[in-house]
Amino acid sequence: MSGPGGVGKSTVSRFVAAALDRSVVVDTDAFLGSIVRGWVDPNRPEASQQHEAVGAAFAVSAITFAAHGYAAVVDGYVFPDGAHGLATACAARNLACHYVVLAAYRAGALVVS
Prior knowledge:
two-stranded antiparallel ribbon
């Protein structure tokens, strides 16, 4: 589940996970919030190393849950670069990977693609 802040990723992720038998929500914000020192504003160009570390951490978590039979719903801004990396890692382990991008089309409207 990807998209900019405020479009409903967390809400939709929880609804999707709740509709499945064995599921977990992997919240990328929780991983980013785990950084105690050395945190860099994610919107700054110098945050690229932080993005790599956080992306690797949540990808390993999601893949580990999936490998053990859980539907892992990743909640965070990962599209397009992170989605490609996650899909590649899943394919290498013969795990399915699907993505949803939520976007605010106009005030009050939600577009799912």
